[in-house]
Amino acid sequence: MTLEIGMPAAAAGQGDDPLEPASALLRRLIADHPHDRISLDDLLNGVGHRAFGLLLLLLALPNSIPLPSPPGLSTIFGLPMAIFAAQLVFGHKTPWLPAFLRRKTLPRDEILKFLDRATPYLNKVERRLKPRMGWFVGPTGERIAGLIIFVLAVVLSLPIIFGNFLPAFAVLLMALAILARDGLMMIAGWATSVIAVSVVGLVIYAGIEAVKLAVFSLFS
Question: Which residues does residue 132 pair with via DSSP β-bridges, in sequence order?
Fold first, then answer.
């Protein structure tokens, strides 16, 4: 059965049990899936009107939690994350993906095992969530978050050593902020994004300088 996902992200939480943490809701959605493999299309059709936050949370988890990720998930999260982020920027009410990404599937049991291991880490953050500072999670705040997430998704797609954790963790914080309508958590996500981009920039700079030094040593 397909659930309605036509409400804006700003309405997240209405119609779902407000006491159910996002991690528990996401796990329940995947656990109730009737097939051995679950596609992004299944998720799009099932997440309800908390769609943007839940999907961004799922895409950010593999690199933002210090645990082995489900096979194949890390290869497809960057592009969908960028697409969802762009839709937040333009104020889309319903998440959309091109057909070739909607058809991508992952083993349901592997995702569940990962979520089970990730839940203690998520719970530490979720216990601090509550609705507050509404402007930062309103329409303008979500557009700003979408722009930042788009940049982070591009960074996450780059093969940079140690370049994944902080950008993914920043996206995770913003996804949870959208879900819980928590403006303070959104600010924390923005601040983490600045740190993440700065660290990745330093890593890239150090790599370039190391290559230049190696080339200079080789030909000197």
Answer: 182
Mean pLDDT of 34-59: 82
Question: What average pLDDT score do residues 173-202 get?
Answer: 93
Question: In sequence order, which residues have a C-beta less than 8 Å from that of residue 182 and are 6 or more positions away?
Answer: 129, 130, 131, 132, 133, 137, 176
- Whether residue 118 has pLDDT greater than 60: yes
Note the pLDDT tens digit of each residue in 143-176. Answer: 999 999 999 998 888 777 667 888 999 999 999 9
Q: How many residues does the chain have?
A: 220
Q: In whole angstroms, what separates CA 197 from the centre of its chain?
A: 16
Count CA atoms within 13 Å of residue 163 on its CB side: 20
CA distances from 82 to 15, 18, 21, 87 (A): 27, 28, 25, 9
Q: Which residues contact 189 (CB under 8 A, 6 or more apart)?
A: 145, 148, 170, 171, 172, 173, 174, 177
38 sits in which H/E element: strand 37-39
- Residues whose CB falls within 8 Å of the CB of residue 178, separated by 6 or more in sequence, listed in order: 9, 12, 52, 53, 56, 137, 142, 145, 186
Distance, in Å, from the CA atom of 50 to the CA atom of 179, rounded to the nearest integer, reads 7
**What is the predicted pLDDT for the residue at 114?**
82
- For residues 182 and 173, is the Cβ–Cβ distance under 8 A? no
Angle, helices 165-180/51-64, rounded to nearest 10 degrees: 150
